[in-house]
Hints:
Blueprint: E1 2-8, H1 12-23, E2 28-32, H2 55-67, E3 72-76, E4 79-85, E5 88-93, E6 98-106, E7 110-113, E8 128-129, H3 132-135, E9 144-147, H4 152-160, E10 166-169, H5 177-185, E11 189-191, E12 195-199, E13 207-210, E14 215-217, E15 220-222, E16 226-229, H6 233-236, E17 241-244, E18 247-250, E19 263-265, H7 276-296
Parallel strand pairs: 1-2, 1-6, 2-3, 6-19, 8-15, 9-10, 9-15, 10-11
Antiparallel strand pairs: 4-5, 5-6, 7-16, 12-13, 13-14, 17-18
The structure holds flavin-adenine dinucleotide (FAD).
Amino acid sequence: xxxxxxxxxxxxxxxxxxxxxxxxxxxxxxxxxxxxxxxxxxxxxxxxxxxxxxxxxxxxxxxxxxxxxxxxxxxxxxxxxxxxxxxxxxxxxxxxxxxxxxxxxxxxxxxxxxxxxxxxxxxxxxxxxxxxxxxxxxxxxxxxxxxxxxxxxxxxxxxxxxxxxxxxxxxxxxxxxxxxxxxxxxxxxxxxxxxxxxxxxxxxxxxxxxxxxxxxxxxxxxxxxxxxxxxxxxxxxxxxxxxxxxxxxxxxxxxxxxxxxxxxxxxxxxxxxxxxxxxxxxxxxxxxxxxxxxxxxx
Length: 298
Ligand SMILES: Cc1cc2nc3c(=O)[nH]c(=O)nc-3n(C[C@H](O)[C@H](O)[C@H](O)COP(=O)(O)OP(=O)(O)OC[C@H]3O[C@@H](n4cnc5c(N)ncnc54)[C@H](O)[C@@H]3O)c2cc1C
């Protein structure tokens, strides 16, 4: 059976796109490996009507609502590859099956690589965080930190300082005098020492220990992970990919169509910055643009 659309990745962007296509009575197949990027967080913040909800419950509710539409099929598992096939696309599944569709949406998200500092990975999404808008209010006025990774970390530290007293941990790196001046204006303390590990019970954070054995109290540490596309499928299909401040970004136009006609991309893989709300908005744009292309051509 040929679907109108196949969606690779069925979390926030993918399910939003699928919902609009389902409501337009189109045959849509959602292939999802079940590993949304925020699965490490106990609560997702800022998404209208779901502020503070467990991310998996938001997705489960969306999936259940989508499943009520008769033209939707779900495939649980990973798409292993994709190719342009005639006027459409073929998405290969790990078991050897193929999903054929007239158009496709990529919504497979990013994968984060974290600094190999002991104690950091275990606290990801709980007290080691990527974004103060998502996870800042909960740590208001407590000692906050930013781990230096790139010059953008200076900007991140100046922003985080809005939520509480902030230290930029250089971890042995150096910053220029302009950055130092900017940090001073935003009342950010600069700590040059090399970090040995993070300390605290379970997912909580009580401090950051330096290589000299001293510990500084800390409630939350913000980091900018090195991110990569979770799947090579965009490259396999020939879509143009740019390098953004937080990792690769699949190039799209205002309709969220990639450089490959009929192929759309939505969510974290096609934008910066990242959030559930933006991923959902992009999914809606991709889904409705794809639908209009089915109706009017393009
Ligand atoms: C720790 C953490 C906490 C966060 N907290 C918040 C928050 O509080 N509020 C907020 O707004 N944002 C938050 N974010 C950002 C938010 O998680 C992302 O912006 C959002 O998940 C992006 O949605 P997406 O649909 O683009 O991608 P994802 O959520 O990453 O979903 C991609 C989906 O595609 C699937 N997939 C990948 N490869 C394949 C494949 N080959 N075949 C099939 N399926 C595939 C994945 O398994 C996954 O289910 C947080 C991010 C992190 C890392």
